[in-house]
Amino acid sequence: MKPAEGKLGVLCVGLGAVSTTFIAGVLSLRKGLGLAGGSITQLAKIRVGRGEARKYLKVTDLVPLCSLQDIVFGAWDIFSQNAYEAALNAKVLRQEDLLQVRQELESIRPMPAAFDDDYVSRLSGQGTQIKQGDRASLIAQLRRDIQQFKQEHQLDRVVVIWAASTEKFIDYQSAIHGTLSAFEQAIAQNQTDLISPSMCYAYAALSEGVPFVMGAPNLCLDIPAMWQLAETKQVPIAGKDFKTGQTLMKTVLAPMLRTRCLGLEGWFSTNILGNRDGEVLDAPENFRTKEVSKLGVIDTILRADQQPELYDDVFHKVRINYYPPRGDNKESWDNLDIFGWMGREYGMQIKVNFLCRDSILAAPVVLDLVLCIDLAARAGLSGNQDWLSFFLKSPMHDPSRGEQPVNDLFQQYTILKNKLRELGGYEPDEELE
User: Residues 6 or more apart from 14 whose CB is under 8 A from it?
Assistant: First the structure.
């Protein structure tokens, strides 16, 4: 494995609430301020060895992660505000905390973004700096941005992570997504209805040999064309959709039901959210993308094919409501109608009210994904890094190979720990069912 030497550039697509909270947090940690709460790479300890040889190592001691001191930040955004102004506008972190790193934040000015109103209708006409041109031109401009960012800051490595809005739903079955050659032909023909801006970013990054992480539920990396490109360029990828609030709870509660052999009749989930993400998801075509991501979680955990008497007819409903007064402080309600001994006639309910801070939960996930995808690149890994599913709401998998996504949080954590053990030179020693 190559050592974590030199500077790592992190290019965020979108300089909104999630990105600015992530960046400001890392800058604060570098000054000994704040807490890396929620970050596995910074706080978790993993057991290695057994018996008398057993010991617990922090992840930073187990594998050679990039130091937070060696990260250089950049971004693209449709708004020209620097990172300090954008953080103030996001209203996630207190101004007194932002003032501690104001100078560094003000030096981060986003590059003009590749953007298409048709994919994020609620932001139509709002952007002040948007790249112009067809899809091929946008990709060429993004590649130059990556090259110039790397050269200007004398970086050894770069990672690109999507932290921008959820795009509208695209039909996965399109033929142009099926092969790299068909996809590249569609780029040349400027098929804007099937090639989204996020695909332009991913294609540009992979073409430059740069790892790409998809932090939204957009159809982007999870198409055969992108998998072929990642393998051709020998670049690691990961996605999709940061797992933070309500879905995180689902990946904990559903395994509990399965483990105790408790049945489920229905699961109703609703959210209120007032930030830009909530505004974008207020459009039905964008909500559909998020809905598909959220709905797929419990099916692979509960497995109706294995226990039909418990899970053969689960009614699963998901709603997201835009409510501006709440800002970034998302609130979710879940109602589970369950049953057990003597069947459905003796039903019970579980109700969960999670008042969370969306970007506070997402920021450490972004950090962990950035550091782990860089680790994967230095270890010579390429293609989909499914061991990072722990951090993701809708983990990518290859249906053509009969793969099923793992959504159980505890199984995901076992996979993550085993991979870190392996990369650290230890035996993977936990088994999955």
Answer: 75, 76, 77, 113, 162, 163, 164, 165
Could you please state the CATH topology (level 3) that the domain comprising 246-355 is classified under: Dihydrodipicolinate Reductase; domain 2 (3.30.360)
> Which DSSP symbol is given to 242?
B
Q: Is the pTM of this model over 0.70?
A: yes
If one compares 53 and 309, the residue with the highest pLDDT of the two is: 309
Q: Quote the CA–CA distance of 215 and 166 in Å, as a whole number.
A: 9
Q: What is the arithmetic mean of pLDDT over 386-412?
A: 91
Q: How far is CA 329 from the centre of its chain?
A: 19
The CA-CA-CA angle for residues 97, 108, 370, to 5°, reads 85
Q: What is the DSSP code string of 96-133?
A: HHHGGGHHHHHT--PEEBP--TTTSGGGTTT-S-B--S
Instruction: Sketch the domain layout of the chain as residue ranges.
Output: 8-242+359-423, 246-355
Please list the residues that pair with 162 across neighbouring strands: 13, 214
CA distance 371 to 332: 29
SS (H, E, C) 400-422: HHCCCCCCCHHHHHHHHHHHHHH
CATH, domain 8-242+359-423, list 1.10.10.10, 3.40.50.300, 3.40.50.720, 3.30.420.40:
3.40.50.720
